[in-house]
Amino acid sequence: MRHFIFLLMMAGAPSAWASDCPVPLEKNPRQAELLDEIRSASDSLSALHLTNRMWEIWATAPDDHAQELLNTGIERRAMYDLSGARKAFDALIAYCPDYAEGYNQRAFVSVIEGDPTRALPDLNRAVRLSPEHFAARTGQAMVLMQLGRTPEAATALKSALALNPWLPERIFLQELAGQAT
Q1: Are the CB atoms for 136 and 125 separated by under 8 Å?
Q2: Cβ neighbours around 48 below 10 Å, total
Q3: Residues 6 or more apart in contact with residue 31 via CB below 8 angstroms
Q4: For a surface tag, which of 20, 52, 118, 132 has the fewest beta carbons within 10 Å of its beta carbon?
Q5: 138-143 own/partner pairs: CB under 8 Å, 24+ apart
Q6: What pTM was computed for the model?
Q7: How far apart are CA 52 and CA 35, in angstroms?
Q8: Where does residue 148 fall: left (phi above 0), alpha (psi -120 to 50 degrees), or beta otherwise?
Q9: DSSP per residue, 103-160
Q10: 151-162 pLDDT, tens digit each
């Protein structure tokens, strides 16, 4: 029986791994540089290339186990196995509760499932953990729009655009301003 429990723990049971996740870096040194480059990009295509480099930073998990969980969740989601994706992201969050991208990715699953109310707490947590995560801020804005919370959506979108003025969702700002009056 002890061997079975040990094997279960080594297989990735979240409670077995919870204390082993390294604390995510407060900020990747390259992140601030990329944010500056994105804000000063000359066009949307240049900004898109820089944004993809930012995604590489966000999608680099604190260790190999966390990376495996993140990759599994993303792969499951891409195959529309939303239950499998959620399980992987739940395990990632249980293992690394201070890793913002786990919450952001789980929120994306909730949005695909058509449950914006379930997505919002995860997006809020992602932004608290990583205030410069303009994708999570954009997600907040889109979810708040779906929920009819227009003033809050406008605020969230403005905060995302302050970090990345080239976001495609910038087209919604005028619509939000018109609805807020």
Answers
A1: no
A2: 15
A3: 54, 57, 132
A4: 52
A5: 138/167, 138/169, 139/104, 139/107, 139/108, 139/111, 141/169, 141/172, 141/176, 142/111, 142/169, 142/172, 143/107, 143/111, 143/116, 143/119
A6: 0.86
A7: 12
A8: left
A9: HHHHHHHHHHTT-HHHHHHHHHHHHHH-TT-HHHHHHHHHHHHHTT-HHHHHHHHHHH
A10: 999 999 999 999
Q: What is the largest CA-CA distance in the chain?
A: 65
Sole residue written with tokens 């919604």: 172
Distance CA 130, CA 134 (A): 9
* Locus of tokens 């990715």: 105
